[in-house]
Amino acid sequence: MFTKTFQQLNYAPNILAYGAGFSDAAYFEAVGDLGNYTISRAAWALDAVKDRPAAVEVANMFRDRYGDEMDENSARDFTAALTLFQAINEAGSTEPEAIRDTLEGLEAGADETIMPWDGITFDDSGQNELARGVILQYLDGGYKLIWPFDKATAEVKVPVPPYDRR
C-alpha cells in the first residue's frame, strides 16, 4: 500500500530496508516494477558466496528440491542445523549441556559455511562474532548484490528516480 501510494504521489524515497516485507517475494509480486531501487540488508545471497563450491551446490540442491531459489531464511536455517549437528558430533553427546559447551568453543572457518561470513565462533552472549550481512538492491526484476563491493553484481542506483521518470 505504501509503495502504490508513493507512486500516486510521485514520491520516490530511497528505501533502505532491514529485511521486513521488502525481502519477501510477495512484496514484489504485489508491486511489480514499483519495487525497483529498493535496497535491503540480507543475511545471505548466492552471489556473495559463488566462489564457495559447497554453497553453490547446496543452493542448487535446494532449488532442485523445492523449485525456488534459496533465500536468506533457508540459508540461515540450513546453517543453524549444520552448526548444531557439528556441535553434537564434536560433543559426542546429545546432552544439552555438552552441546552448549561445544558450541561455546566452536570455531568454523569461512569455507565451512554457506553464509557470507568470515566463519562461526560465538561470543559470551551467544552471537556469532564472524557473521555479517550483504546489501542488495532490487533492479530489473530481481535483487542484485551491491555490497560487499568486491563481489557486487551491480552498482547501487541512487538517488531513486521519481516514478514519472522511470
Can you describe this structure in just a few lines?
By secondary structure, the chain is α+β, with helices and mostly antiparallel strands.
Taking the alpha carbons of the first and last residues, their distance comes to: 19 Å
The count of β-strands is 6
Low-confidence stretches: none
| Helix percent band | 25-40%
Strand order of the largest sheet: 1-2-5-6
Determine the structural class based on helices, strands and strand pairing.
alpha+beta
Overall spatial form: elongated
| Arithmetic mean pLDDT | 92
Mind describing the biggest β-sheet?
Answer: 4 strands, mixed
**Annotation field: number of helices:** 5
Rg, Å, rounded: 19 Å
Number of domains: 2
What are the secondary-structure elements, in order, as H or E? HEHEHHHEEEE
Quaternary structure classification = single chain
User: How much of the polypeptide forms β-strand, as a percent range?
Assistant: 5-15%
